[in-house]
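hiii so um. not sure if this is the right channel but i have a protein structure encoded as tokens and i wanna go backwards to a sequence. like what aa goes where. can anyone help
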């Protein structure tokens, strides 16, 4: 994967890699006790926890130091970042479900 295409999330004034990985899904399941497919759009705690898991996983994979705990992460995450993350995720999912013919 090209490093330029990796999503970044600004947290406490610093940019961290953030993307959905298998590791992020496993982290979420271990922390929340349920699968990502059961994530409720109305549960802000779960939504933020999934993003936290995505940042943890991407940082681990990219060898980027990330030692923030969940509470500190949540305190530092702005609502616009949460919205952008889920909008990007929805856009990526639509592209995967409806690929352009001939590509």
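sure thing!! here u go:
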């Amino acid at each position: 994967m090209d490093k330029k295409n990796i999503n970044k999330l600004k947290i406490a004034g610093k940019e961290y890699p953030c993307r959905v990985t298998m590791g992020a899904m496993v982290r979420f399941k271990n922390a929340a006790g349920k699968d990502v497919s059961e994530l409720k759009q109305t549960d802000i705690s779960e939504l933020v926890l999934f993003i936290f898991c995505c940042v943890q996983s991407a940082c681990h994979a990219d060898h980027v130091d990330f030692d923030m705990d969940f509470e500190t992460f949540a305190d530092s995450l702005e609502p616009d970042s949460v919205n952008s993350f889920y909008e990007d995720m929805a856009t990526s999912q639509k592209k995967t479900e409806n690929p352009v013919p001939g590509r």
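oh and The chain has four helices and two strands.
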